[in-house]
Amino acid sequence: MRRSTPHHHHEEYSVDNTNNNSSGSTSDNSPSDVVSDAPAHQAPPPLNQNDERSLGLITQLFEIAVAISVENLEEAHEMLLDLSHVASPYAPSCAERVVAYFARAMSSRVMNSWLGTCAPLTNHRALHAAFQAFNNVSPFIKFAHFTSNQAILEAFQRRSHVHIIDLDVMQGLQWPALFHILATRAEGPPQVRMTGMGSSMDLLVETGRQLSSFARRLGLPFEFHPIARKFGDVDASMVPLRRGETLAVHWMQHSLYDAVGTDWKAVRLLEELAPRVVTLVEQDVAHGPAGSFLDRFVGSLHYYSTLFDSLGAFLAPDDPGRHKVEHDLFFREINNVVAIGGPGRSGEEKFKHWRRELARSSFLQVPMSGNSMAQAQLILNMFPSVHGYSLVQGDGTLRLGWKDTGLFTASAWTSPASS
């Protein structure tokens, strides 16, 4: 697979699980509470009173966006004060909840423009808990995990020593399912090493212990190496590679909630690593041309309105999991898309389609297989049938959306330098 690379011990913590007699536990996130995919194509009903109210709120929000786009910040600030009194993130209406969060984000943008500050601190535990909640109440995270696992599994066929690099491992929710399949291979389990990257060493060590415990229970030889840095700040010399390993890199695009990551360096890291497979999952937000706040606003409003609608279709307005996802995850993403464009920071570099960047860097696309499609369909079939999710296979990718809007796209790539 890869050439021999010297060991570099950068904040490394290793667990060797060749002893199969010890036991442990991890949270095995089996799919639950999920949905089948049947697009709804019905004529829209006449607007009722709630629809008219929602339309009025969205119109107000758009007027504020126009004011911000022409730097009329005083007027935008006054309109935002008015809107904040009438739009609530706890409302029964999905549209009103979206408007409330966008209004907060746009208020932050106005303040950033006045004060010259942006990029709030990240509460990593709250963010991880929000991802856990999103995984529990929606198929989107499971879709990303299962389709990526299938592509990695296919790349690891008949390989005895494998190495997974997760560019933002968080709690490692997706890996127990892959471990189980690898442990039960007809040709026997491979030696598995994982390098997990993230901002908190404490959380990385915790994730490593959970994954190690799960691997021991399966009899899967396993080592975990944490690198407590954002992957944009990592170069290949920090990754503990070994001769003869088959390398897979998983890149779940999280740039929408991370305002300060240097994602543009990630492609260079991938070029240096030359993995056999890169699994990439992106959020399909339309960002518009560079420097265009209004286009970015319109694209993100459509995207998050669709996401909020997908949750509201089968979760009550006061559902605590729904509120955690909307407040701790979606609002953070909205804030970074809308408010990040303060003085000296357009934010546009962060919000691009990385499939194009990989293609420009000579990576070759590996079409998502029929097995990946079957995995995605299996996930949808396990959710309540609300006839809204859509699954599309095309251009070598898999895209999961709500009704007619694509929300998450999974793709796989290989380096021409891999072996």
Automatic annotation (TrEMBL):
Q: Which InterPro entries match?
A: TF_GRAS
Where in or outside the cell is it found?
A: Nucleus
The UniProt regions of compositional bias labelled Low complexity, in chain numbering, are: 15-34
Report residue spans for region: SAW.
339-414
Stretches for region Disordered: 1-51
Keywords on record: Nucleus, Transcription, Transcription regulation
Look up the record and report any one GO term of the cellular component aspect: nucleus
Give yes or no: UniProt keyword Transcription: yes
Query: Family, per the entry?
Result: Belongs to the GRAS family.
The family database entries (PANTHER family) matched by this protein are listed as: OSJNBA0084A10.13 PROTEIN-RELATED
Protein name as annotated: Uncharacterized protein
